Amino acid sequence: MFRRSFYGLYPYKSSMIGLESLTDPSSDWDIIETIGKGTYGKVYKVISKKDGSQAAVKVLDPINDVDEEIEAEYNILRSLSNHPNVVKFFGMFYKSDELSGGQLWLVLELCNGGSVTDLIKGLLMRGKRLEEPIISYILYGALLGLQHLHNNRIIHRDVKGNNILLTTDGGVKLVDFGVSAQLTSARLRRNTSVGTPFWMAPEVIACEQQYDYSYDARCDVWSLGITAIELADGDPPLAEMHPVKALFKIPRNPSPTLRHPEHWCRSFSHFIAQCLIKDFETRPSVTHLLEHPFIKQAHGKDTSLQQQLSVLIREQQDVGNRIKTRHERINTRKTLIIESCPDDDLVNLEVLDEETIIAHLQRRYQELQIYTYVGDILIALNPFQTLNIYSPQFSKLYHGMKRSTNPPHIFATADAAYQSMVTLSKDQCIIISGESGAGKTESAHLIVQHLTFLGKANNRTLREKILQVNPLVEAFGNACTAINDNSSRFGKYLEMKFTPTGAVMGAKISEYLLEKSRVIKQATGEKNFHIFYYIYAGLYHQDNLKKYSESVKLYKEQFDAIQDCFRIIGFTEEEVNSVYRILSAILNTGNIEFTSTSSQHQSDKSEVPDSEALDNAAALLSIGSEELQEALTSHCVVTRGETIIRTNTVDKATDVRDAMSKALYGRLFSWIVNRINALLHAAESGMNVGILDIFGFENFKKNSFEQLCINIANEQIQFYFNQHIFALEQIEYQSEGVDASLVEYEDNRPILDMFLQKPMGLLSLLDEESRFPQATDQTLVDKFQDNLRNKYFWTPKRVELCFGIQHYAGKVLYNVGGFLEKNRDTLPADIVVVHGASVCVCVCLFQYSLMDLLSKMVVGTPHFVRCIKPNDDRQALRFNKERVMVQLRYTGILETVSIRRQGYSHRILIEEFVNRYYYLAFRAHQMPEGSRENAIIILQKAKLDNWVLGKTKVFLKYYHVEQLNLMLREVIARVVLMQAYTKGWLGARRYRKEREKRNNGAIIIQSGSCNPNALPNDSDNRCMYRAQQYIRLVCEGHCILRLLIMSDDLFLQLKLMLYSCLI
């Protein structure tokens, strides 16, 4: 569910229903069974103790008051549920519970037939579909219900299949009025952007950005048209997209239609077309649609069609489909309650063998619970489908809560990093790792989304800019590979900058190891960087593109999205045009072809037979065509101080052309990143949360230099994980004298040494061989064989020019063809002169990039997200046990489960621990010394167990720090509140004194002028009164001081201190 604001949704004058005025449901209703689980609470079947009738009850707990959204639904149900197509309402009840919080019960008519969404999905699973007369009957009932609402000036605003329920006898009922709006004579339109994304009308979405825009009740007509498509196809249009992307597409795309209109009658298609007229001013009303021919076929046939629908419902129930309630808007409280359970964390499993863990993850995955904890580490399985668990409501749910309060979620990891940063004033780092296609990039998007929500910058534009960074750089740095349609071909480290109070104030992005060779050549089944397809579709509209109309249409939309990214982030029109010119120049450069020619004195000379592409590239780069051609087809050699110009062969000219294209693209990408950093630069220093999204481990049929670099980078990330989780922990246990079982793990340091050692490491050998002009691929393999003699390196006997590496993730066979040329990555001096730039890229730069990345990571406290790919076919709900097991093994997850259960994930110096948490056990004005005794007092006062005190540090479980930080935030919040009250009172007191001083002056003047003899007596009286007041204040202050000294309650101390100021 998406919405812009929680306020102003329902203009009824709030009656502020008091919970004490509601009756306890226990005397009227008994729960029979659980029907289902909605987003915000459970739904039960209940039976009346009075007459034995059955009903459905939505239980919302815990709850302390009735907020405006619950009250809005209550008012509508109470006054309008007397219609046959609106669900009946039996009352609202409150069941109090002082310990766990009370429960609010909304008792509604029992609709045992489930929702129309459940019905159509069940039919489609069995290879069937709804017949048109049945669809007409369902839409007829929904229209009658909407007509009843609209006649009473109510807009539903969330019409969809899940909010149209069916009774077992075939009745059609509208439900869920939590976001409905009441129109008045003075206000016939609304302007709040609210609803479920895929069903929202364009005019409703527009209100999110255009605050002077508005809509009327016909927004429900659009939603009903989308629901009609849902009844036919099983899903609404754009259902395969992320909801946020759908919100972007709906206003810009043409009105949606049926997936296969030829399978349906023209009348049905026309009805949908009428509902989905984008201009709501010309869209028909509900009353007009009741007269549409498609709907009129249900008139007079209600009984027979209702019976047919009833038969379908019974068949569905006989098959055994479980009824799932998804009316997500019965409650839209600002705090959502979703139950967590012990199996959310693998550490809590009784048995920790591989089979149990795999079975546990598989069961959760089948239930669409894609996230699981391993202590403070998050496992994320790629669902390969869109899940509705990333809305603003879920962002509110995962805000400042204990990790164990809610089910595992990527938002919880982002919140943990954010809260640690604010509470401890220390930088944080979120490291996302996994294979290519495991979902790392999407996880990074969601983390940025949640951090911008938590940061709540005063500048809304800044938040929007930060959210556009990832889509922009990924358009230039991502590409389609054989195993991933949106594979990151570069490493990205995004640092979000925050103020000390936690408000986001800027961002900085660092890019690593861009795969520039993709610009000139792609493997079979792979594509170039996304941006080339976007710009081709966006800037060129030629007749020969018609046969690719579908893909071109898609790329054109994505091109428009990239244009918006540039605009929102702050690029000028001139800068954007320059980017497009360079991209177009690269495209044209790739079309430059060479032919061989000979002259009287030279043979094997190259030339450009067709100069069109050359001229275009030169013009776009603002250089001369002749200069560019000369730089491509010849080169300068300096011998004994003399410059000799030699011609290039066709192959040499082609290499120069390709090198120029790679250099141009690499420089362009770096410029875009630097420009983003300049536009999002934080004006002041602060703290940051870094998000690492780097390409995953790769193993293709043919692996080259690019895969070697990618896999070495992943080896480095895995080593960092091992060091943080295993090695450093073991060393610290021993040095601190803590008794903890040492966990064995696979240390990949020997592999990294084989790669990075100098001078005999693989990369050093490669760099050395690249400097020999006569070196070949064979000499490179020979050098590797002669110098790399360990178990992690081998050369296959039957495959030439190849070598194998035993990586932490498995064996990979590399083909050395092109290794030397790619490592040299030289750009001829002639090209450098033409462009006025220089390029230097080699293995040394790769090693430097790794060191730079690690230096950023080690500064902050790490939080790990391990992305797992459940299958190689990218199929939803398909869980390949063997593939998952391999990933769990090589990522160290199985060992992590053991060490997180028996180990201590947080170690804090005793002195730092006492300084940080002394508020929890000592008086506000005390400053206890950082001793072991005081640390024990704090731990005992916080009622923690299973902690250990080492020689110099306090060793805590992963859940201990979370609990301590939550308690500390609560105390600090109280202190801030009391400070605010005190400052306000002091200001008021100063004002009163000044006013009293002026009044007294006026009285003295008046009394002196009227009776001069009275002054001495008045002065004596005032002196006596002041003496009495002073004695009283001294006595009261003494009593308060005694209370302060004797009190152990921090909050009571603060209140007494404030009172002492007041008197």
Automatic annotation (TrEMBL):
Protein localization: Cell projection, Stereocilium; Cytoplasm, Cytoskeleton
Chief place where the protein resides: other
Superkingdom to which the source organism belongs: Eukaryota
Gene3D superfamilies, per the entry: 1.10.10.820, 1.20.5.4820, 1.20.58.530, Kinesin motor domain (3.40.850.10), Myosin VI head, motor domain, U50 subdomain (1.20.120.720), Phosphorylase Kinase, domain 1 (3.30.200.20), Transferase(Phosphotransferase) domain 1 (1.10.510.10)
Renumbered residue ranges of the record's region Actin-binding: 850-872
Alphabetized SUPFAM superfamilies for the sequence: P-loop containing nucleoside triphosphate hydrolases, Protein kinase-like (PK-like)
Gene Ontology molecular function terms on file: actin binding; ATP binding; microfilament motor activity; protein serine/threonine kinase activity
EC annotation from Swiss-Prot or TrEMBL: 2.7.11.1
CDD domains attached to this UniProt entry: MYSc_Myo3
Domain Protein kinase span(s) in chain numbering: 29-295
InterPro entries referenced in this protein's UniProt entry, alphabetically: Kinase-like_dom_sf (IPR011009), Kinesin_motor_dom_sf (IPR036961), Myosin-III_kinase_activity (IPR052409), Myosin_head_motor_dom-like (IPR001609), MYSc_Myo3 (IPR036083), P-loop_NTPase (IPR027417), Prot_kinase_dom (IPR000719), Protein_kinase_ATP_BS (IPR017441)
Cellular compartments per GO CC: cytoplasm; filopodium tip; myosin complex; photoreceptor inner segment; stereocilium tip
Record's keyword terms, sorted: Actin-binding, ATP-binding, Cell projection, Cytoplasm, Cytoskeleton, Hearing, Kinase, Motor protein, Myosin, Nucleotide-binding, Repeat, Sensory transduction, Serine/threonine-protein kinase, Transferase
Matching Pfam families: Myosin_head, Pkinase
Record-annotated Myosin motor domain positions: 341-969
Catalytic activity: L-threonyl-[protein] + ATP = O-phospho-L-threonyl-[protein] + ADP + H(+); L-seryl-[protein] + ATP = O-phospho-L-seryl-[protein] + ADP + H(+)
Binding sites annotated in the UniProt record for ATP: K58, G434, E435, S436, G437, A438, G439, K440, T441
GO-annotated biological processes: positive regulation of filopodium assembly; regulation of actin filament length; sensory perception of sound; system development
Family, per entry: In the N-terminal section; belongs to the protein kinase superfamily. STE Ser/Thr protein kinase family. Belongs to the TRAFAC class myosin-kinesin ATPase superfamily. Myosin family.
Protein name: non-specific serine/threonine protein kinase
